C-alpha cells in the first residue's frame, strides 16, 4: 500500500527527515515510536502533503501512485487520513456540515453524485454510535467546546465516516483517560479490515495492548533505526530509547 524510500524532508529550512525507509502493506498496523523531536509528526505531515514540509529527496508510492505528486486534498480522497496530535476548532462550521462537505468532496472526486440528505444522516448516526459520540455534537462547531477526550473520539468518528484506506494516528491517545483511550482504540479496531492499514504514533504500552500492531518502528533523528514486532514497543516501555540510540550510533 505505502512504500517510503529514502525520504528526506525539511521544515523551515532545517533537515528533519534524513532517509526514512518504510513499507506498509494492506491490512497492517504499524506503530511508530521515537523520542520527542525525532520527526514522527514531520513524517505524518509529509504523507498528507502539508505545504510547510518540503521533501528534498526520496519517494513515496501509495497504491502504486506517486503520492508526492498529488495535491493534499487528492491524497485524502485517495484514502489517506490523518488524525492530529492537537485537533483544531472550526467554530461556526457544524460537525454535520463539515462531514457532509468532506464526504461529498470525495464522491465528486470519484465522479459520484452527492449523498442524499437521508442517507448521509443515516451514515452519521451509524458511525456516531460506533464511537459513542452523542448526537448533540453534530450540531456544534467542529471541536468547539469539545473536551480533549471528545476531540479524540471525534477524530475516530471522522475516520469512521470517511473510511480511509490508510490512517495516520498521531498521538491520538495523548491526554486521554483510560476509558477514552479504550473507546478510541476499540473504535479504531472496529474500522480495521484486510484492505486498510495504519501508522499509529504512540508512547503508550496500553495502546500496544489494544492495537496488537504487526510492526513497531523506532524513529531517531529522522531515520528508522530499528523495526520489530510489538515486543519492541514493550522493550522500549521498559528500557527507554537510550539503548536503541546507542546501537544505532555504532552502525
Ligand atoms: P516528533 O513528532 O517526533 O516529536 P516533530 O516531527 O514534531 O517530532 O519535530 C521534529 C523537529 O522538527 C523538531 O525539531 C521540531 O521543532 C521541528 N518542526 C516540526 N514541525 C515544525 C514546524 N511546523 N515549524 C518548525 N519546526 C518544526
Ligand atoms: Mg512530539
Ligand atoms: Mg509529534
TrEMBL record:
GO molecular function list: ATP binding; ATP hydrolysis activity
Sections of the chain in a coiled coil: none
Keyword ATP-binding: yes
Transmembrane stretches, start-end: none
Keywords: ATP-binding, Nucleotide-binding
Pfam families: ABC_tran (PF00005)
Origin superkingdom: Bacteria
Annotated ranges, domain ABC transporter: 2-246
Entry-linked NCBIfam families: sufC
Family, per entry: Belongs to the ABC transporter superfamily. Ycf16 family.
Protein name (Swiss-Prot/TrEMBL): FeS assembly ATPase SufC
Organism: Alloprevotella rava F0323
